[in-house]
Amino acid sequence: MKYKVLFFLSPFLVMNLFAKDIILGVVPQQSPYKLLKVWKPLVNYLQKTTGDKIILKIERSIPEFEKVLYSGGYDVAYMNPYHYVVANKKKGYLATVRADKNIVGILVAHKNSKITALSKLNDEIFLFPAPYAFAATLLIKYELLKEFGLNLDDFKVRYVNSHDSVYKGIARNIGDVGGGIERTLHNLNDEKSKKTLKILYKTKSYPSHPFAIKPTLSKSTQERLVKAMLSVPADILHGLSIRKLRTISDSEYDIIRELASNLSLLKEYKWA
To answer: The whole model's pTM is what?
Structure first.
């Protein structure tokens, strides 16, 4: 008599048969230590939900992040909108989800500063996190030129690696005005520095940072990741200052391509 032997695999075991290591990169707007702490719950959730091993990779500075991203060093990356249009052009990264809230750049100064009108800026020192930080640098430069006729090539500009470094630098009078975003200012853990700052200017709102996936990931892996990201619990998103994630299309970032073209940023990619 012949017997059939049946094997029953649990859903979790089946998931792990197809699991792979996925490198997640995050643009370092704040210190690596702080980012590792706040992003760990999301990584744990994605691992549990997808069955894939998620390896979080944080670089020490935004330029280092850009170098890895543009070489295709991440499977998935959370990046600013300008990083995205370049990464999409160079390596085919495709935006999948983003926060439903748009992004706004801010310009801060010391509370004791006598600067009241941006049109009267003359020889002030500007602090920015990095040359291609989107809201904190590019939006500020774009709108100061467009709205006030101020070309920051005519000013002293220093790049200090992170949003936190900008805020602390302005608080300590290393610079006169600096670029950032409200979320990183709100999350600044140096209360003494935070209390010394005031917001001088806010830009218009633009599409926010996307999670973009490298096309070399299998379609099934991409679908698992997107499905998991859209189901992240509110308390985990709250730790990242995100209210809700939603799906997006590449065309939402055409306005970023236009902005970059106006700033003559994309000539090396023959878009401007």
So the answer is: 0.74
